[in-house]
Amino acid sequence: MPETSEQEKIEETPTVVREEEAGSYGLADETVQLIREALDAENKEAVRDYIGELHSADIADLIEYLKPKHRTQLIEVADDLIEADVYTDLDEAVREDLVEEMNATEIAELVNELEVEDAIEVLQDLEDEEQREVLSELSTEDRLVIEEGLGYEEDTAGRLMQRGFIAVPEYWDIGQMIDYMRETDDLPTEFYEIFVVDPRHHPIGTIPLDHAMRSRRHVPVSDIMNREQKLIDVDMDQEEVAYLFKQYRLSSAAVVNDNGALIGVITIDDIVDVIAEEAEEDILRLGGVGEDDLFGSFMDTTRTRFTWLLVNLFTAILASVAISFFDATLEKVIALAVLMPIVASMGGNAGTQTLTVAVRALATKELTASNMHRILGKETLVAFLNAPRSPF
To answer: Which end of the chain has fewer CB atoms < 10 Å from its terminal CB, N or C?
Structure first.
């Protein structure tokens, strides 16, 4: 048989290779390589066939894996196949680069397809003037809601919350509540609880959706609602919100304003993203990196890392000065100079172990003022016990 040319291979019917076929999930390296080759060959049909078979989260991963020139090509070839949700799954630096290439009308079209909290996430990266230009392209209702969201501090419950929720009065029965949910046009896409409010719109209880569906129509709402609930202040930091969900095993929680009125809801799927974001932030701080710079420009990455390296240089100089006081001893016993890097390495590794445990404990609120002395005592004891076991 004659050999198949590289161009003919690309033009064959594409088959997406998925990681789950090998026992894991995600976008396979083989698929990424095939799409790169199709883009280089300007085979638009093959690229569109590949993209059409991918989940939005996998498309976001694909865009991150590609070089900037390939990203631009991909957007040009398969823009209509790339859902708006893809932009919310992208790394912030990559999303900023893509949004910068759009005009105000294109960004407004993207924002219109997103949930309010996701639209705010996209718009918050823009300059104030660009934000105003995009907002002017939106309807009055959408613009007011997004402007309100942008008015809250970044990384707070106000930025994180969903505006769509179901709230009913205490004097209704289950039948009235179900009829209301069937007839209303602005029913949230996903929700886990129904909030019960008083005449001032203050939340006074919740009804889990499964309880509502199992109850008969004549049962009063007040008879089955849970009066004990965890309320989230609109200005609460998102890390505190995540801790609240973890500590009390919440699936959703009401967000209230300064007057105690219900204005939004945060659900567990929102918190999953926060937990991942905060964990990433903690581990980057541990390594002396201020933010995720994997997809940033080399100049930005150099600038953000330089400060920490400068601090390390200063401490290294102090250590060198201390060692210089023992020049005479080092000249007499040359073996000590050989052992110096080993001692420094062992000390650094021991410090990294303790620091890692401490940073994680602080993030999860396991290390507090009440148990600080006990934890520090334990780490000190571990250090003393490990020291004699080291090779030197």
So the answer is: N
CA 255 to each of CA 2, 28, 204, 262, 263: distance values in angstroms, whole numbers, following the listed order: 67, 40, 12, 6, 6
**The predicted structure's pLDDT at residue 10:** 43
Strands, sheet with 232-233, edge to edge from the N-terminal-most edge strand: 232-233, 252-256, 262-267
Q: What angle do CA 84, 87, 91 make, to 5 degrees?
A: 170
DSSP labels, 225-282: -B-----EETT-BHHHHHHHHHHHT-SEEEEE-TT--EEEEEEHHHHHHHHHHHHHHH
Q: Which residues contact 172 (CB under 8 A, 6 or more apart)?
A: 180, 220, 221
Comparison of pLDDT for 50 and 388, the residue scoring more: 50
Domains 6-155 and 167-268 share a fold: no
The DSSP secondary structure of 30-96, one letter per residue, reads: HHHHHHHHHHHTT-HHHHHHHHHTS-HHHHHHHHHHS-HHHHHHHHHHHGGGS-THHHHHS-HHHHH
Query: What is the crossing angle of helices 128-135 and 116-123, to 10°?
Result: 140
CA 270 to mean position of chain CA atoms: 9
Q: Indicate whether this model's pTM tops 0.85.
A: no
CATH of 167-268, one of 3.40.190.10, 3.40.50.300, 1.20.1270.10, 3.10.580.10: 3.10.580.10
Domain positions in the chain:
6-155, 167-268, 298-389
Hey, what CATH class is 6-155 in?
mainly alpha
How confident is the model over 315-326, as pLDDT tens digits?
A: 778 877 877 777
Helix, strand or coil for residue 194?
strand
For the stretch 213-268, pLDDT in tens is 899 999 999 999 999 999 999 999 998 999 899 889 999 999 999 999 999 999 99
The residue among 320, 307, 199 whose CA lies nearest residue 260 is 199
Cα 168 to chain centroid, rounded: 32
Angle (nearest 5°) at CA 244 between 240 and 248: 165
Q: Please, which pLDDT band fits residue 128 given cuts at 50, 70 and 90?
A: confident
